[in-house]
Amino acid sequence: MTDPSTPDVTDLSYEKARDELAGVVRDLETGGLTLEQSLSLWERGEELAERCQRLLDDAQQRLDAAQRSDAENASRSE
Fold it and tell me: Could you tell me the CA-to-CA distances from 73 to 4, 64, 67, 68, 76 in Å, in that order?
């Protein structure tokens, strides 16, 4: 569960955010939490999922840009 010492989502790497998200899902599936605890975990999970998606999207954009650059360089060499 989240507490004041929980790092800001924007500071997490993809791997750390993914691992924490897996823990959130596990805690929610296990049950036994109060409504407030469940809502807090759900909100943290949403933030973590958004962080992971943002990092994946950024990585895809970088790959696409590198591929375009490689293709442009190859066409100039011909």
Answer: 50, 14, 10, 9, 5
Question: Residue 71 — very low, low, confident or very high, per pLDDT cuts 50/70/90?
Answer: confident
Dist. CA 15–CA 5, nearest whole Å: 19
Q: Report yes or no: 14 and 55 within 8 Å, Cβ to Cβ.
A: yes
Would 63 be classed as within a structural domain? yes
Q: To which residue do tokens 């989502």 refer?
A: 9
Tell me, yes or no, whether 57 lies in a domain. Answer: yes
Query: pLDDT tens, 1-14?
Result: 446 678 899 999 99
Number of domains in the chain: 1
Stated pTM of the model: 0.81
